[in-house]
Write a structure and sequence with these properties.
By secondary structure, this protein is mainly alpha-helical. Strands 5-4-3-2-1-6-9-8-10-7 form a ten-stranded mixed sheet, sandwiched between helices. The longest helix has about 40 residues. It is an enzyme of class 2 (transferase).
């Protein structure tokens, strides 16, 4: 047996079954409690699950079960729990697990949508019809456009009235669920979206006939769909079309056959852009149609819409407008420069020059003829009896181009013949010139019309989108009518921005070309042409002429002229990108020093951006935008002292502290900071009755010493309390350091001295007296400022004793006595003992005053009170720190992440909704057989240089290794050798998190889940929850960090680092946060051959199971191959998860496929099979070499709000996300790749999105509008070879279908790049070859023709043009060298040198 195939697994009847005849679901029904579920147990709403507390979930489930008086499907035993999806499955023959999958899909989506919808009194516990109607409109929008394009009436028969009845709601649900069921079982057909529209069109009609109780024309009985029965949809609808795709792929000979010899996914799909699909395929699908014929050119349906031909001419054919512009300007510039006048406009004053310039029209007409020949030569195979008009247009375009060339040539000749005859510009010559211009005006009329429509883009969009036959006839001559590529014009504002960019760029390029490239070549050219007496040592190609020499001189210049626009684009895009970044407030905080200046406003910025703002949600329109802008301005520059509001709002301060400390704790989990740095960076929550925000010690370092210095400098001032306090308050951190130190000292002294003793009363009275002097501004008048230094020294001594492992109470008593003596003499007015006793500042009994005052009054807190001693250590750091700690944290990655996160909160980002009201989203990662977790042998095995992976990682991440070992020792490791035994799992994870492994990606993506749980808690928690919870976290966190090395930790650190369940905020969760986070987020890893790994007992299968066990939101989708007999193999898309209650992996869904998964490129096929298991409004595509950060995950709900904002005339369909390349430190080559990639993913993509409006999809941190894409072909294309760069085709497809791609730099995702020379070389080769295939593709051709001129320029120079011009640079070097070689060896150069008359001119060449 093939190891990839295995016998059917032992399954209950609940998986992979169908709606069989005369039975229920496979004859048996499992008990509801035994049926596994994915996210929500919809099958059993009485089950205790956090998601069931939402009324929206119950409302949608109830709406689905309200089948009403629908006719029950025949041959199926209908039972009470069945719902609308079961009804559709029974009638149309869908698989049961497909029905189960889509049931959860639609319940989750509609429930989430209703949560976001404003609450309605009429629909508190029922499904809101508006929510359902909006979803149907979005889901079926592509189908509706398809029907309109083909002139067909939609078969979705639903009333558009707002006051919908219950029957209308049932219809809404039926038509919506039908599309999802078709999509969920379509397998590879999901890459051909209009084919799905065709299938849905006919199945929706059958559904209408069932609903209308139409009788069958043949039997007279109630109508039954033509494709019904067990697995009918898969076997009779999907499989026939799948098989023809499979045969065509086989005809490609693994991609080696010419693209024109076989039909790819796009050809199959574009067959359904024509009305002949209805005539040929019919319904049910006629498998005898010539659509299914694969042999013989006369019978089969060949290429549709476009033929991919390998030729360099594709660059000219796809971007002909660019090359026409460059060639015509070159011709005109040479003509004008030939006159050798000062400025070009001076030369144009001559009528002769003006007329010669008109020869560009002859060239233009000739170029049109070349274009028509290329069109005919590459697309002739599209012509058939169904496309006669296409062939006619090809012929007519060639004939018309020839005619124009002849007309212009004749008219031009007539002008000069008359002028030469009259020997002047006579009236007849001018008349003939006018005739030429009139003909030229007719010739360029289409271009003038295009210019007018460019200025008025909405008219162009209207003409292209409106499916009126008159518009089709008007545009028939200019372009082929296609379903995509219509209405691509942007709004007027965007038009002005990218037009201005290109006008400036082109003006610079043409000025440079004329004055510094073309004009300096004219004089040498004339000199060479006049050069005589050349003794050719080689063959003289042209008798008595040096034209070959002139050509060789001009060739490098022309090549540079054709490619240097790429350089000008790079220059101006850098300037524009820098400007856009400047106005976006990027890079304002680049290091810890700059963060110190802004951190006091950081809490307010976090509160403003990451916490829901109800008052802002109620504001609308321009008022909201203005208020938002003013608020951001205040935050950015500290206007209005925003930190004062946080200080006065204890709940807001605690929320900020919880979030910040969670970030720091995760930094520690990742080992990028040490335990000591945690104490310096964390923000202690409210404790010890401290009145101000307790900023991290990092910010308070040295501030108390500076305040003491300021106080002692004013020793001679009598009454200057306000002046001193004013100076201190100029620095917010200094003010907080003084107040926190004072409050902490007061609390600490009262804590360590027994309550009820006379000493305790004395301390309290001392502080009361000091407080009174501060309140009355008499502190400096009352006390000696120089004595503060003595008191400060005694306090440091006291804290040193308290923070020692072994506490010596006698020494503490001695220090307290000395401290009391200093405080007693602190007053400027010397007071007697009696006076001190009167005020309660001295003991009342003389016997006590003779002995040690605190001898029997000190009671130190128990050693187990870790919270107290943690605060004492913080106080000691505030009192003793004398440097600015600019190197904290020491790890560069930690600094970068803190700086980026803090800077992003001062940028313009959307406000965060509550987690319950945010858009739901999924993350999808394709995985094949890469490393999951490094194994022990992998880490220890040395290469030929004697270097192991672990040794290399220890040297690259030296500080992180120290932090890791420190953490291991804190968690119970005694001997370092235990790292290979008791702590082996932690070691393997540590190394894997620093490689490009699946475990690193999973850890990063699960930060979304962890962040959503925390944010859900903060959204719903009361003030009491947050206040009391903050104290609990502070106490428990201190105990955990300061616990003895007794090995008593409950869970292994690896588990903690993966799930984060035991993190600080996780201690406060009530349970509902888990349900909320699961409803909003799902992570699916498409482990294509996970089934094979399990069958072989591969280590990777065990590691993937470990990841599922420790990440409850993680799901794994794979393709299972099940042997049926000797020859037959069945293929299934399977979704599994780890059940925490059963403590094992469980299978959730098993959807049968029509055949092998991989027909096209592997990665998009892997994504496609798993996408049916994703959930939510958006899906983020993440590669296996990527990472994520917790602090960035906090901003995901802000990012998803971008879908509600219009960018230009469209809302986004792809949200571009910034990438950080984390492999830059591995090697010098890796650093180069990192710098190269960083420049593109930041500055480059920033400009592409704004102002150029041509950003596509270049990688995998981007977030897709999920329902928009699932109805339009998915998130990538998969045709063999042509779509080798599958990612970018998602952007091409998005733009052609009217989507909008934006770029957002306030959030980032980590990405690994190739680090070795061979790897980098292979990657560059893949990108370059992928670009070579793009040039052949229909997507690039259509974008080159359907985008307006300036967006076309942007598109060319950022995709195809970059690689083409790189090749041009190489060719220029060769042309120059070979040209110089010819001049040197042919004897021409000697003749030039010997010709003294022209030496100066020739020297210029």
């Amino acid at each position: 047996m093939n190891p990839r195939q295995r016998p059917p697994p032992a399954r209950g009847p609940s998986h992979g079954s169908a709606y069989g005849a005369n039975l229920g679901v496979n004859g048996l029904t499992p008990p509801p409690e035994a049926e596994p579920f994915n996210i929500i147990p919809i099958h059993n709403l009485v089950l205790d699950h956090p998601s069931h507390r939402y009324l929206e979930v119950r409302a949608v489930a109830a709406a689905l079960r309200a089948v009403g008086d629908l006719r029950k499907p025949p041959f199926v035993a209908w039972r009470d729990p069945m719902d609308i999806l079961d009804w559709l499955g029974a009638f149309f023959g869908f698989q049961r697990d497909n029905v189960r999958n889509q049931r959860e899909h639609i319940v989750l989506h509609l429930a989430n949508a209703q949560m976001r919808h404003p609450p309605s009194r009429d629909h508190i516990d029922s499904l809101d019809p508006t929510v359902l109607r909006r979803f149907r409109y979005k889901l079926l929008s592509n189908y509706s456009s398809w029907c309109s394009y083909l002139g067909r009436k939609s078969n979705v028969w639903i009333s558009n009235r707002r006051d919908t009845s219950s029957s209308d709601q049932v219809r809404e649900l039926l038509f919506t669920c039908l599309y999802l069921l078709i999509w969920g079982e379509a397998a590879n057909l999901r890459f051909v979206p209009e084919c799905i529209c065709y299938i849905y069109h006919h199945m929706a009609l059958e559904l209408c006939w069932i609903l209308e109780d139409r009788p069958d024309e043949n039997t007279g009985r109630p109508y039954i769909p033509l494709n019904s029965g067990e697995n009918a949809f898969l076997n009779r609808v999907v499989t026939p079309i799948y098989q023809i795709i499979r045969v065509e792929v086989e005809n490609s000979r693994n991609g080696t056959a010419p693209h024109s010899a076989w039909r790819n996914y796009d050809d199959i799909n574009e067959f359904f852009w024509t009305r002949r699909c209805f005539r040929r395929l019919k319904w049910p699908i006629d498998v005898s149609s010539n659509f299914f014929v694969t042999e013989g050119k006369s019978k089969r349906v060949g290429k549709t819409g476009f033929v991919e031909q390998r030729s360099f001419w594709n660059v000219f054919r796809g971007f002909d407008r660019l090359w026409v512009m460059l060639i015509l300007f070159l011709q005109a510039a040479i003509i004008v420069a030939w006159e050798e006048s000062g400025a070009p406009w001076e030369a144009l004053e001559s009528r002769d020059v003006q007329v010669r310039v008109l020869t560009i029209f002859i060239t233009w007409a000739g170029l049109r003829f070349v274009q028509s020949l290329l069109d005919a030569g590459t697309q002739y195979s599209l012509v058939s009896k169904d496309t006669v008009w296409l062939g006619l247009r090809m012929v007519l375009k060639s004939l018309v181009a020839i005619a124009w060339t002849v007309v212009f040539g004749v008219f031009y000749g007539r002008i000069w013949s008359r002028k030469n005859h009259d020997r002047r510009w006579s009236s007849e010559a001018n008349r003939r010139l006018v005739n030429f211009l009139e003909a030229a005006l007719v010739f360029i009329f289409p271009e003038l019309l295009a210019l007018a429509l460019f200025i008025l883009p909405w008219i162009r969009n209207l003409i292209e989108k409106t499916n009126w036959r008159i518009f089709y006839l008007l545009t028939w001559w200019f372009q082929t009518r296609t379903f995509v590529g219509r209405g691509l014009r942007e709004g007027l504002v965007d038009n002005i921005k990218y037009t201005l960019f290109w006008v400036v760029t082109l003006a610079s390029k043409f000025a440079f070309s004329y004055f510094l490239q073309i004009k300096p070549m004219i004089a040498p050219t004339k000199a060479v042409l006049k050069l005589g007496r050349v003794n050719y040592r080689w063959n003289e190609f042209f008798d008595n002429s040096n034209r070959l020499v002139v050509g060789l001189l001009w060739l490098p210049v022309i090549l540079i002229y054709l490619m240097d626009l790429q350089i000008w684009y790079s220059i101006f895009s850098s300037f524009v990108g820098g400007t856009v970044g400047l106005f976006s407030h990027l890079g304002e905080i680049r290091n810890i020093q700059q963060l110190r200046l802004r951190f006091q406003f950081f809490a307010s910025a976090m509160q403003f951006n990451l916490m829901p703002q109800e008052q802002l949600a109620n504001a609308k329109g321009w008022g909201k935008k203005i208020n938002d802008a003013i608020h951001r301005l205040k935050l950015r520059y500290g206007l209005g002292r925003p930190y004062k509001k946080i200080e006065s709002d204890q709940v807001a301060a605690n929320k900020f502290g919880l979030i910040w400390n969670e970030i720091i704790n995760i930094f520690r989990e990742e080992d990028i900071i040490s335990d000591q740095e945690v104490e310096l960076l964390e923000l202690p929550l409210h404790a010890w009755n401290i009145r101000v925000i307790r900023w991290p010690c990092l910010l308070l370092s040295n501030e108390l010493m500076r305040a003491l210095s300021q106080a002692t400098e004013l020793v001679d001032a009598a009454d200057n309390d306000k002046g001193l306090w004013f100076k201190i308050c100029k620095n917010e951190y200094r003010r907080c350091a003084v107040i926190e130190a004072y409050d902490s000292i007061k609390y600490m002294l009262l804590k360590i001295v027994k309550d009820g003793t006379e000493e305790h009363s004395i301390i309290k009275n001392i502080f009361l007296e000091i407080d009174d002097s501060l309140l009355n501004d008499k502190f400096m008048k009352t006390y000696k400022m120089y004595a503060l230094l003595q008191i400060h020294a005694k306090l440091i001594s006291l804290l040193e004793l308290l923070n020692k492992p072994k506490k010596d109470v006698s020494k503490v008593v001695g220090v307290l006595q000395a401290l009391y003596d200093d405080i007693r003499d602190f007053s400027k007015v010397k007071r007697t003992v009696e006076q001190l006793r009167e005020k309660g500042l001295a003991p009342s009994s003389p016997t006590i005053s003779t002995g040690l005052l605190f001898e029997n009054a000190v009671e130190l807190p128990d050693v187990e009170n870790a919270f107290f001693y943690r605060q004492a250590r913080r106080l000691e750091m505030i009192l003793t720190s004398r440097n600015s700690m600019h190197n904290v944290p020491a790890n560069l990655e930690a600094r970068r992440r803190i700086a980026f996160f803090s800077n992003s909160l001062f940028m313009n980002i959307p406000h965060a909704p509550q987690v319950e009201k945010m858009m739901a989203f999924s993350v999808l990662t394709p995985y094949y057989d890469e490393d999951v977790v490094f194994g022990k042998e992998q880490l220890r095995t040395e290469n030929e240089d004697g270097i192991s992976i672990l040794f290399y990682l220890q040297k690259i991440y030296e500080d992180e290794w120290r932090n890791f070992m420190q953490r291991m020792h804190r968690e119970g490791m005694v001997d370092d050798d235990e790292i290979w035994t008791n702590k082996l799992r932690e070691l393997r994870l540590w190394a894997s998190y620093r490689g490009q492994t699946l475990s690193r990606t999973v850890r990063g993506m699960m930060y979304y889940y962890r962040a959503l749980k925390m944010l859900a808690f903060l959204d719903s928690a009361s003030e009491m929850d947050i206040t009391e919870g903050s104290k609990e976290i502070a106490f428990v966190g201190s105990r955990r960090r300061d616990s003895l090395l007794d090995g008593s930790s409950g869970r292994g650190p690896s588990s903690q680092s993966l799930s984060g369940a035991s993190s600080g905020v996780g201690l406060l969760f009530k349970g509902q946060e888990y349900g909320t986070a699961l409803m909003k987020y799902t992570y699916v890893v498409a482990c294509q051959i996970y089934g094979t790994h399990k069958a072989k007992k591969d280590q990777r299968a065990e590691e993937i199971l470990y990841l599922m066990k420790n990440n409850e939101a993680l799901r794994v989708a794979y393709v299972d191959e099940v042997q049926k007999g000797r020859e037959e193999v069945e293929y299934y898309s399977v979704l599994v998860k780890y059940d925490q209650q059963l403590q094992k992996e469980v299978e959730i869904y098993r959807v049968r496929l029509p055949g092998p998964l991989k027909l096209g490129e592997g990665k998009p096929e892997n994504q496609n099979h798993a996408i049916i298991f994703t959930r939510g409004d958006a899906v983020q595509t993440i590669d296996m070499n990527q990472d994520n950060y917790f602090e960035e995950a906090l901003k995901m709900r802000n990012l998803l709000e971008e879908y509600k904002t219009s960018y230009g005339i469209r809302k986004p369909t792809i949200l571009g996300v910034r990438e950080h390349i984390f492999t830059g430190s591995v090697s010098s080559l890796a650093w180069f790749m990192s710098a190269q990639e960083m420049s593109f993913v930041t500055l480059g993509q920033r400009v592409l999105a704004n102002p150029l409006k041509v950003r596509m999809h270049y990688g995998h941190p981007d977030v897709f509008d999920r329902f928009w894409f699932l109805t339009r072909g998915g998130i990538s294309k998969a045709s063999r070879v042509i779509n080798i760069s599958e990612d970018i085709f998602a952007g091409f497809n998005c733009t052609l279908r009217g989507g909008n791609v934006t770029h957002h730099e306030y959030i980032q995702v980590g990405k690994g790049r190739d680090v070795g020379f061979n790897q980098i070389s292979m990657f560059e080769a893949k990108v370059a070859s992928g670009n070579g295939e793009q040039v052949l593709s229909r997507d690039v051709y259509r974008l080159g023709h359907r985008l307006d001129f300036f967006r076309m320029l942007s598109f060319f120079y950022t995709t195809v043009g970059f690689f083409f011009n790189t090749m041009m640079v190489v060719l220029t070097v060769y042309a120059f060298l070979w040209g110089r070689l010819y001049l040197a060896l042919s004897g021409v150069e000697v003749a030039m040198v010997n010709n003294t008359n022209n030496n100066k001119l020739l020297a210029r060449s």
